[in-house]
Each structure stands twice: as C-alpha cells, then as structure tokens.
Amino acid sequence: MFGRPLPTASVRAVAAAVVANPFAGRHVEDLSPLIAAAPELSAELARRCLAVLGAGPEAITAYGKGAIVGLDGEAEHAAALIHPTFGAPVRAAIGGGAAIIPSTKVVAAAGFRLTMPVTNRHDIWVFDDMDAASFAIDDAPRPDEIVVALVYATGGRPGHRITKPT
Q1: Mean pLDDT on 70-92
Q2: pTM value?
Q3: How wide is the angle at C-alpha 85 spanned by C-alphas 116 and 123, nearest 5°?
Q4: Which residues, 6+ apart, have CB-to-CB distance to 28 below 8 Å?
Q5: Given this model, what pLDDT does residue 1 score?
Q6: Whose C-alpha in 2, 9, 113, 119 is 20 to 30 A from the C-alpha of 105?
Q7: Average confidence score pLDDT of the chain
C-alpha cells in the first residue's frame, strides 16, 4: 500500500440474496416465518462467501451482516431475518466465533448502497478488523422484497496499525 507490501492479504467477500417479503404492505405481529427462514438463508450465504474467498474457514478473521427492506416493509422484517437465528450457521461455517456479528438494517428503495460493519469474529475490540463492506444491487429491493447480506473478511484493514489503548 503506497509502495509498501502488505503483510497479509485484506479481502472482503459479500454474498447477498433478494427474497420476497411476505409481510410487505401490512402490519403482522408474528414474524416467525422470517425467523424460521433465516438459518437456511445464512448457511447458503456463508457457503457462497467462503467459495468466493477460496480460503478455509480458519482464514476468516471478521464478519458482518445487513439487510435492506423494500419500501412496503419495515425494519422489523430485517431484524427478524438477521437477528434471532441467522448467526449460528454463519459461525458454524467458519468453526465458531465468540463475538457478536455486527449488523445494519434499513428500509430503502432499489439501488440503495448498504454499508455493513465488520468486526473480529472472536473479539469485537480487535482494532485491525474494525472495518466495513459496502454493496448495492441496482434493481433490489423492490417494495415487496428484502435484500439480506453477509460479509466475511480476512486480514484486517489494509495497512492496519491502530491498536487498542492500554
């Protein structure tokens, strides 16, 4: 970086899925169908991130997640997908992770650029891995859709050299 070699590769892989929002345009108290769908969805996103990275699970140092709900939905629809049951398959795919999977969620129109926080999978206070990953899908989400995404990362920020105060 700036003429200096990086000691480790710094790579981010984002996998995203566009799913129908069964609750678009109406208030529903019971969001359990979204909660129930999350583990299969997150396992597939994890598999795809690992495939893109071409690295073994042990190479993953950090992760993050996010969702964009189309304009006929609400942020709670994203919360149902990415909070209660999403994380276990994400951690299982990489052999564990003690730290929370940081997230973001938003209600927005198609083409919205989502920035997801990324933190170390074992310790949220590892400064080298504090970063972000952004992406957009030009034609999603439509008003009755939800975009759900996962990011896996290796190597921390490029050229990282900020440490936690002692």
Answers
A1: 98
A2: 0.94
A3: 55
A4: none
A5: 62
A6: 9
A7: 95
Question: For residue 85, what are its two tokens?
Answer: 């049951």
Domain hosting 35: range is 11-154
Whether the Cβ atoms of residue 42 and residue 89 lie closer than 8 Å to each other: yes
Give, in order, the Cα–Cα distances in Å from 24 to each of 5, 48, 106: 49, 27, 14
Residue 164 has pLDDT above 80, yes or no: no
Cα–Cα distance measured from residue 143 to residue 110, given in angstroms and rounded to the nearest whole number: 8
Q: Tens digits of per-residue pLDDT, 122-139?
A: 999 999 999 999 999 999
Residue 78 lies inside a defined structural domain of this protein: yes
Q: What is the dihedral of CA 149, 155, 157, 160, to 10 degrees?
A: 160
Tell me, rounded to whole angstroms, the distance of Cα 143 from its chain centroid: 21
Answer whether residue 99 is part of any domain: yes
Residue 5: strand pairing partners: none
Query: Which residue pairs from 128-131 have beta carbons closer than 8 angstroms and sit at least 24 positions apart in sequence?
Result: 128/61, 128/156, 128/157, 128/160, 128/162, 129/61, 129/62, 129/153, 129/156, 129/157, 130/157, 131/12, 131/62, 131/156, 131/157
Residue 161 falls inside a structural domain = no
